[in-house]
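We emphasize that the prediction below concerns an isolated chain of 118 residues; any contacts that depend on oligomerization or on bound cofactors are therefore not represented. The input was used exactly as deposited, without trimming of termini.
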Amino acid sequence: QVQLVESGGGLVQPGGSLTLSCVASGMTFSIYAMGWYRQAPGNQRELVARISSGGRINYGDSVKGRSAISRDNAKNTVYLQMNSLKPEDTAVYYCHADHPSRYADDYWGQGTQVTVSS
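Result of the prediction step, given as a token string:
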């Protein structure tokens, strides 16, 4: 079965940086668009960053200029580097995969907690 496993979350001070990783298995990784989304209590899940199979990238407005998404198809891994972190970045961060043409193929990881606090 498809599995997405996030890692790299934790506690970081405001202004600090974190890099999250998501390792995928059970699917042909290279053909999927991969994304990072986040959700804080009481908030909607929102886009952080997304990268297509061809390397096209979109960032959510709230993190634009502070985040960088990348993928390594040889390692079945997508990364999210976050800089200049703010308390409002505190959320559970989820890895997401979707097939470019088979829209029902839509997978989520379990999430990793990022807490930005002094």
